[in-house]
Amino acid sequence: MFSEFRDKGLEAAFLEEAGKNSLRYIRPVMLLSCTIYLLLFVYDLLCLDAGWPEIIKYSLVPRLFIFALCLLIFLFSKNAGNFRLIVNATSALVMLMYASHIYMALHLTGLDPTVEALNIFMLVLALFFLPNRWILSLILSVVSCVLFLLFSPFFLKGLKPETAAVFSVYLLWLTVFMSGMTLRTNSYKRELYAKSVELERLTLTDALTNTGNRMASDDMINRLCEEKRRFCVVLFDIDDFKRINDTCGHTTGDDVLKKIVSLVRENIRERDMLARWGGEEFIILLRETPLEASIEIAERLCRVISSECFENVGFSVTASFGVTEYMPGDGLASILRRVDRRLYSAKKSGKNRVCASGE
Fold first, then answer.
1. To 5 degrees, how large is the angle CA 99–CA 101–CA 103?
2. Cα–Cα dist 280/32, whole Å
């Protein structure tokens, strides 16, 4: 109904991505708008029928307050990680700017109806311009328009009923028009985002086993190394897999791969990553796991696989495991080189075992 994903997690990810991308133009536009808003103090001083004390109290002070809040958001948002919070704070600043304008208008005289109509026009555009939820933008726009229509008789002295009616129709049309345009735009953006997410998933997913592929595991290792997070890498290879393909057929070999993936997933945590590293080689990334615990996990997987009965295979299926942990200064190449050597040691020493020692 509101051009939003039914999946709340996907919707939150989309809004976070939209907020992140929009900061490139939101920050400078917000600062420019608030600077112009502050400089309009000069217009109030020259054009409104009020003395210095009233102008300072009811024009300069509120404008300085809004500008100070804008400057805080501008500086804080430069390196902020919660982009949705920045977008919401900007929306709140827009509404607060208009509320302060009403405060000034109620205490100052000589306001021009055309200028005030332009203010509400720019406000509605700003609210729909922000990458916020469509329904929230609509609610805020309606509230601002209602506030304008309710308070206009008080700060626009001598406003004729027919002029107020024209304002009402115009604001209604503007809100409906912007709502419709934004609704269609939001729907289109989410459609593109869903396609990009699916394309990324296909790019990083092994088609046969529905696990991550080597690109996905390499990306995750690089990310964990950059974050200097504690993790271990388990690399395992199905022993004599060529024999399975040659004697039982490639279809049975594919079934063996799928079955082993199922067994491994049942014995690792959801936060751990399983990826197909090569033909019959798989890699497991165990986050926040010490080496001793990782070795225990690998040994358990080794026993589970060797004790499993695989359909249409007339002999035992086993796997060999290499285990290593992240060390300071490690990168993708050094970790993979080390764990590959340990897998080779497990193969060389008799297969169906775990090796986690030596360089």
1. 75
2. 58
DSSP assigned state of 257: H
**Would you say residue 50 has pLDDT above 90?**
no
- Residue of 290, 293, 288 whose CA lies nearest to 272: 288
Task: Render 41-60 in DSSP notation, one character per residue.
Answer: HHHHHHHSS--HHHHIIIII
Q: Which tokens sit at 196?
A: 């990009």
**pTM for this entry:** 0.59
Determine phi and psi for 326, rounding to 5 degrees. -70, 135
**Tokens (6 digits) for 266:** 């049942």
Dihedral of the CA atoms 169, 149, 138, 59 (nearest 10)?
130
Tokens of 131: 């990458």
Residue 357 dihedral angles phi and psi, to the nearest 5°: -135, 155
Catalytic site includes residue 280: yes
Domains of the chain: residue spans and CATH? 8-203 (no CATH), 214-355 (3.30.70.270)
Record the tokens describing residue 168, joined without a space: 């009402």
CA distance 104 to 34: 16
Distance CA 275, CA 214 (A): 7
For the four alpha carbons of 245, 251, 254 and 259, in that order, the dihedral sign comes to negative
Tens of pLDDT, residue by residue over 2-20, are 678 888 888 888 888 887 7
Catalytic residue among 116, 280, 281, 325: 280
